[in-house]
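Table S2 (continued). Query chain:
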Amino acid sequence: MKQINILLLLVIMVFIFSSCESILPKAPDSSDTIAEPIEGLTPHQLAFFMEGDELFAKIFTPDEGLVPIFIQNACEGCHVGDGKGHPFNKLTRFGKYDEDGNFDYMLDQGGPQLQHRSINNYLPEVLPENATHFSDRIAPIVIGMGLLASVDDQTLLDLVELQNNEMDGITGKVNYVLPNDFFLSEDIHIDSSGYYIGRFGKKASKVTLLDQVVFALKQDIGLTSDFDTEDPINYVIASNTSDGVPDPEVGSDVVNRLVFYMRTLKSPSRRNETDQSVIDGEQIFKDMGCVKCHVQTLTTASSEIEALSNKVFHPYTDLLLHDMGMSLNDNYREGNAKGGEWRTPPLWGLGLADDSQGGIGYYLHDGRATSLEQAIEMHGGEAAGVIVNYNNLSDEEKGKLYAFLMSL
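Corresponding output:
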């Protein structure tokens, strides 16, 4: 009798486990995820990546240095799952022009960025009444940034020359910016009278990923670091407001882990590449002229991280500034980028973007477009000829174009 009971129990357990296997969701395919490391990392590098991953998701508290004013209390607060941000979490840059015609980022009044949230019993920052120029932004996707960071400056300058000499109406340019005090030039960089080529940020105003991370820690989360030790201040309340936590609030070890994490996030895998509609859509993309700016293929230079060294990859960007016309002109300067000039955003991960945006895709720098069609039609300036080609497409051809874009 006891043997029969044991046998019956085994049968029931097998049934339960087999049922659970059919009910529980399977792990997502690699092509459907973006928060993964690039292939080829050493065990030590992989451990460093995992530490950076934890810091990227970490929610900081006032006891840890979250200052009285901020935008979000974690990197993932804006970059959910390493993806694009949502208009709900948009940020606002502000400034004005001075009497000499120079752009003033109003650093003495809390600029260049608004911190519209605050801890308990503290007033959030508000836009200064004398600010005249504003630019709303949503957070970009952060995958594959290590590959973009490893392209040498000469490649970008060669693209500028190619576009200006051989592509009618396309006049990309680099954004020369004055680097931060902690900037260390590498072999990929070219010094232009003390200025260097920016490649990160909506207007390519940041030279390196370190610049981007240090800026975001302070301006988005309110954390000082070994690289920038001054807290953001709400000047309406006081000029020397302190959060009570000794500065710097995070050390270089935290910053370096975050930088390494962003450097070694994988680029997304393509999906549905063999579908005929996707194949046809890619050819339409090329025929329209989109690849003049959304350059399909780039190659990295040599890197101390072997997994990033001399790699061919497909981001669909030239990392250059282009005039996008009056519809996208925010009249906000960054470096030598004018109001209507924006860095060509990489298109990789486009088909996965809505997963991090609540199921609805929000496109362009501020998320104003909620469909690929809207985003394309808002292109102007240098893209005017491309839009003429787009408007001449049939509905069937447009559908194939969207299929290709969503496969990226």
